[in-house]
Every structure is written in structure tokens, then in C-alpha cells.
Design goal:
By secondary structure, the protein is mostly helical. Helix content is 44%, strand content 6%. β1 and β2 form a beta hairpin.
Length: 107
């Protein structure tokens, strides 16, 4: 999953899930496209929160191995996830096929 290795408390996970319209005690149904999109949006929220941590905006060197530009790579991953969410085909039940469209400005 997109947020593997990120440690949060159950309460923090609950906040992220509820912000995206998910219920923590509900069973995830991957065959429902809207649920899949909501889970991806939750992962995106978590990654965005991690990207706001100023301590992670540096290069790391551990045992002669370096992880350079962690923050830049995280931002690239966030952009990839945002594109994935934008490309998911989900029918919005709030819109109707008989909606009106008009142009405010004409040439």
C-alpha cells in the first residue's frame, strides 16, 4: 500500500479516514470504485502530512548508504498518486444526466 512503513496511532488513522468519507470499522470493498478512490485519497493525505515534516527535508546517510533528496522523491510520489486518483473512473451519484450547461461569455 502507498503508506506502508508510516506509523500512526489508530486515532490519527481514524481522522484521515473520516476526512475522506471512510468509516474505520467498515470492511474495505475493493470492487467499489468510489471506495478505492477514497482509500487512495486517504493515502495521499497521509503522504502530504509526511511531506510537511521539516525534519524529512534533508539527505540521510546511514552506514555509508545515502538516501538523497527524500523530500523531493516524496513529492514526486505524491504527484504520481494524485494522477492515479484523477484517472480513476468513478461515477458521481450527485450529478444527474439532465444537468444544465451554459456559456457565460461568448466570442
Amino acid at each position: 500500500m502507498e503508506v506502508k512503513g508510516i506509523t500512526l496511532t489508530d486515532d490519527e488513522w481514524g481522522v484521515y479516514l473520516s476526512e475522506n468519507g471512510l468509516i474505520t470499522t467498515e470492511v474495505y470493498q475493493p470492487n467499489v470504485p468510489l471506495n478505492k478512490k477514497k482509500v487512495y485519497m486517504t493515502a495521499l493525505s497521509v503522504l502530504e502530512s509526511v511531506s510537511n515534516d521539516i525534519n524529512l527535508m534533508k539527505n540521510y546517510v546511514i552506514d555509508d548508504m545515502s538516501v538523497s533528496s527524500f523530500h523531493e522523491n516524496l513529492i514526486k510520489r505524491i504527484d504520481q498518486l494524485q494522477n492515479k486518483i484523477d484517472n480513476l473512473q468513478v461515477e458521481d451519484t450527485n450529478t444527474t444526466s439532465d444537468s444544465s450547461f451554459f456559456m457565460l461569455f461568448a466570442d
